[in-house]
């Protein structure tokens, strides 16, 4: 007599997961409905804060109402209200695009290092950008245009140094992050030397830029960030499936046929590009790249760090921080946005340390 046992039921995706297929191009997308809803809510919050920020006043005169800003954007109002909106529109657009760009950079490095501290501001890339800008402004005297180019080159050169010193054995250990922290510390010391040995006026400008400054921007300043997103987002979409393999470790990714060395280099270039474009325009903005991916991972049910939600969190975080920095002490002064993001980042780091200490307890 032969007995049979029922085969185990095949694993099923949760009900919140749907698949969108496009047979014409052979594309299949996995969509988490809950994550999409959360991302949509974040985009709504970003839009609302952005519109409010466009109408906010930094003088004793009253600002524009929410509906007034909408009418200006729709082209139905001109004159002084339109001029007010036009003044702050580049700032708000750059904050939204820059926040999304920094968040994507942080999501990439936190995924391949499998460490919540793996972000461009912690491992020294944005510090290197600050060094390049300071050299251009204070040593070479190239002005703001030269500072942008110097920041871009400084970020890229710092990434190369950290890569060659820290990528031995892959990025999944602490070597990459420790090397980055060490390089960042040395660059911070050099930055302090450059500022201390320059004249007072140049030192003040350089110090303000080094804290992240979104003021006095034009629409032309938004172009580098927009172009970076337009070029690098498709590249990230292509390499994202291989990046996901790193969530279980480099060895696991290699066992699934991923060329880990080549993929890490591609992800390094893409991640540095996201960080460098924003930093070159507005200066180093701390903690957005660190906090946004972790917040996105905690508010969505998806496994790993969700890229789209991370970008939405980054946009919301930076546009909100910019609005607070610009208005909280107005009209006496307008703070650099880095002051607000650093304060939020300090709270986040304290929370992270407390959470890690609870996990370490027996």
TrEMBL record:
KW DNA-binding (keyword) present: no
Please give the start and end residues of each transmembrane region. Answer: 33-54, 88-109, 121-140, 146-165, 177-196, 223-240, 265-291, 333-355
Q: Which domain of life is it from?
A: Bacteria
Q: How does it sit in the membrane?
A: Multi-pass membrane protein
Q: Which GO terms describe its cellular component?
A: plasma membrane
Q: Which family does it belong to?
A: Belongs to the binding-protein-dependent transport system permease family. FecCD subfamily.
Q: What protein is this chain from?
A: Iron complex transport system permease protein
Organism in which the protein naturally occurs: Nocardia alba
Query: From which lineage does this chain's organism come?
Result: Bacteria, Bacillati, Actinomycetota, Actinomycetes, Mycobacteriales
């Amino acid at each position: 007599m032969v007995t049979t046992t029922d085969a185990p039921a095949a694993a099923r995706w949760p009900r919140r997961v749907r698949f969108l297929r496009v047979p014409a191009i052979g594309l299949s997308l996995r969509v988490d409905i809950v994550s999409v809803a959360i991302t949509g809510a974040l985009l709504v919050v970003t839009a609302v804060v952005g519109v409010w920020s466009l109408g906010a006043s930094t003088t004793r005169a009253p600002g524009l109402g929410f509906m007034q800003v909408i009418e200006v954007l729709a082209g139905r109002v001109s004159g002084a209200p339109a001029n007010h909106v036009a003044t702050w529109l580049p700032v708000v657009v750059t904050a939204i695009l820059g926040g999304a760009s920094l968040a994507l950079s942080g999501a990439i490095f936190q995924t391949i290092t499998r460490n919540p501290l793996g972000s461009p501001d912690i491992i020294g890339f944005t510090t290197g950008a600050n060094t390049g800008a300071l050299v251009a402004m204070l040593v070479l005297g190239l002005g703001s245009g030269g500072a942008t180019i110097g920041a871009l080159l400084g970020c890229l050169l710092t990434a190369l140094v950290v890569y060659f010193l820290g990528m031995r054995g892959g990025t999944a250990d602490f070597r990459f992050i420790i090397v980055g922290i060490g390089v960042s510390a040395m660059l911070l010391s050099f930055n302090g030397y450059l500022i201390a040995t320059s004249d007072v006026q140049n030192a003040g400008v350089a110090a303000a830029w080094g804290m992240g400054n979104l003021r006095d921007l034009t629409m032309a300043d938004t172009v580098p960030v927009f172009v970076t997103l337009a070029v690098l987002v498709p590249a990230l979409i292509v390499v994202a499936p291989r990046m996901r393999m790193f969530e279980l470790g480099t060895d696991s990714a290699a066992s699934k046929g991923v060329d880990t060395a080549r993929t890490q280099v591609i992800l390094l270039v893409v991640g540095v590009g996201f960080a460098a474009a924003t930093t070159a325009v507005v200066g180093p903005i701390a903690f957005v790249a660190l906090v946004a991916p972790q917040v996105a991972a905690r508010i969505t049910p998806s496994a790993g760090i969700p890229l789209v939600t991370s970008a939405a969190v980054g946009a919301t975080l930076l546009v909100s921080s910019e609005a607070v920095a610009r208005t909280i002490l107005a009209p006496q002064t307008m703070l650099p946005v880095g002051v607000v993001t650093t304060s939020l980042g300090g709270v986040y780091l304290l929370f992270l340390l407390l959470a890690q200490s609870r996990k370490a307890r027996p």
